[in-house]
Amino acid sequence: MVTEVRSTARWQRLPLAAGGLVVLVGLASFVLAAVNLGDPPPAFEVHPEFFLPDAGLALVYGPAGALIASRSRHVAGWALLVVGLGFGVTALGIQYAVLGANRPGVPWWEVGIQLVVTGWIVGALTALLVLPWLLGSGPIVGLRRVGILVGVALVALAGVTRFLSQVEGGPPNPVSGGTPVAEVAAAVDGATIPVYSLVGLGAAVHLLLRARAEPRERRRLTWAVVSVALLAVSYLALELGFFLDGPPLGVAAPVVVAAHVMLLAAVFALVAQPSWGADLAVSRTVVGALLTTAVLASYVLIVWALSHRLPWSQESAGVVAVALLALAVVPLRSWIQRHVDRLVFGSGAEVTVLLDRLGAQIGAASDERSVLEGLADGLRAGLRLRGVEVESCVAHGPRVLSGRLGPSPVAITLRSRDRTVGALRLSAPAGERLDPRTVRLLEQISGLVAMAVDLATVNLDLETARTRILDVRQEERRLLRRELHDGLGPSLSGVALALAAIDRTSTLEPEDAALLERLRQELSRRAADVREMARALLPPALEDGRLGEALQVLARRFSDGGFTVLVDAEAADEIDSGRQVAIYHIATEGVLNSYRHAGARQCRIALRHEGDGRGVRLTVQDDGTGLGNAAAPGIGLSSMRERAAELGGTFVIDSTGDGARLTVVLP
């Protein structure tokens, strides 16, 4: 156990150390930038205008990757660390190149120049070719594993070829300078660009397919797909800007940063846990980065378009651009904030979206308790809470718990029809508190939860009353059967025997003797009817829970030379006693209708369990004349409908073309 704990601690320290290294590289580049302040860039192209974006990405990706890798052990965290390190190395290389160009004798200056072209390509290709394969749930096997291996190989190849290539106009490469290796590396680098494109397209398609196949993560995976696509387009625009030395370069640079921030947010939303407590920081960082990028890119495009397409100076175009952006920045920020909140905070960011999801869960519930469970689960998942409890204030009322409540949960009183019906208790993730926005949202939807609790409480009371009525009716049947079987039946039989004794021991006129015999026979038949009625009220087998045997006895009682009753009862004895009694009496009424009214030769009783294992379906079908008089609203049909309704079931009788069929489904 001690060894396991030490291994876990070591695993957590390793990504933190790597993240610290990335941050250290980014901070070191700012130190060099301060030293180089005011110095001109070197004669060859190192693009110092990309220093701030590269250093900023390093300082963002480093801590994020360390957090994900240490907390969740997700491989995507290590990919983020590689991306951050790549851009940090490029930022450091840019400043080191400026330092060496203005201060001769700086050691390893040529190596710093090679880092400029090597670091960013490693970071960019890791984000485009490796990271998409790591996102989504499920094990990394099959095509995902192949995609990751191919992506890692291409990233390594790109890093090596860029480092060995000669920077145009720069000093000789310290490794391959003066040898054919530099030319070969440049040729290989150019030839593999189409391969990068194909693999990147495959990674994007893979993400898109996973987004369609995983409904729970569809929104986040779709965000990742858009981020990867935007990142690829921005890098193409960047290369076009290098070639044309025009506005695509100014627009592509902020778009690259925005795409990287969007991708980071998507990764965080896919793998992060609420207990990390970084949701708000991620939301604000992403909104700020996207808004800044959108404003800068729009400003560059507007100024370029107005100054080149209209006879305006750049100063005039700049004033117009500022005015337009001032009008657009507030609605643009609201639009970005809304979509980022939906990504980071889940469906709880918008009450309409949360209500839609809760409504869908309520519609899919099978009973009142399932409704409350769906509400609790939906609130916990949509608002990313630690625990949600919904409880009725009535004794023995419904109570459901999703997750676990903390030591001091927030309680919201639930009121319906101007009275308190229960309470909603919620706990934020460990180490966090519920923010005011979430509390206000919960207060807004508390009326919906209160109605669900009120409905569940009323239905629970109705179910309790119905169960009590069924128990009382069952007990009444037992008493009545006992009275008929042990009281009235034997009394009638005793009277018949007494009449027979009078006939044998007394001298009667023939007419009186015949009348007495008819009276004795009638009493004997009525005694037999009473005993039969007692057995029909509650057969002994049914009283012991043997429904299958009771149905077989029923079939034998009605079967004769011209009428046959067949029974196919599946696991009948496993049904609870209340439903057994209802099923038996409905089957008896159905067989009796077929026997007396339908002119049938055969009647089949079928009993099946429904797909959920809890419901029961009873079918009584004959080959008689069809509905006819059997469908008339008499006592028998009304009795069957009432028995089904008492247990919350359904009763349907229809014609099959070859007779009549009644179907009863009990939940």
Automatic annotation (TrEMBL):
Say which enzyme class the record assigns. transferase
List the protein's name: Oxygen sensor histidine kinase NreB
Transferase: is it a keyword of this entry?
yes
Looking up InterPro entries in the UniProt record yields: HATPase_C_sf, HATPase_dom, His_kinase_dom, Sensor_HK_TwoCompSys, Sig_transdc_His_kin-like_C, Sig_transdc_His_kin_sub3_dim/P
* Known cofactor(s): [4Fe-4S] cluster
Instruction: Write down the PROSITE patterns for this protein, in alphabetical order.
Output: HIS_KIN (PS50109)
Source species, domain of life: Bacteria
Where's it mainly located?
A: cytoplasm
Which subcellular locations apply to this protein? Cytoplasm
Keyword set includes ATP-binding: yes
Q: Where is the Histidine kinase domain?
A: 483-667
Q: Which reaction does it catalyse?
A: ATP + protein L-histidine = ADP + protein N-phospho-L-histidine
What is the stated purpose of this protein?
Answer: Member of the two-component regulatory system NreB/NreC involved in the control of dissimilatory nitrate/nitrite reduction in response to oxygen. NreB functions as a direct oxygen sensor histidine kinase which is autophosphorylated, in the absence of oxygen, probably at the conserved histidine residue, and transfers its phosphate group probably to a conserved aspartate residue of NreC. NreB/NreC activates the expression of the nitrate (narGHJI) and nitrite (nir) reductase operons, as well as the putative nitrate transporter gene narT.
**What keywords were assigned to this record?**
4Fe-4S, ATP-binding, Cytoplasm, Iron, Iron-sulfur, Kinase, Membrane, Metal-binding, Nucleotide-binding, Phosphoprotein, Transferase, Transmembrane, Transmembrane helix, Two-component regulatory system
- Entry's Gene Ontology cellular component terms: cytoplasm; membrane
Alphabetically, the GO molecular function entries are: 4 iron, 4 sulfur cluster binding; ATP binding; metal ion binding; phosphorelay sensor kinase activity; protein dimerization activity
Membrane-spanning regions, if any? 16-38, 50-69, 76-99, 111-134, 146-164, 184-209, 221-243, 249-272, 284-306, 318-336
Q: EC? A: 2.7.13.3
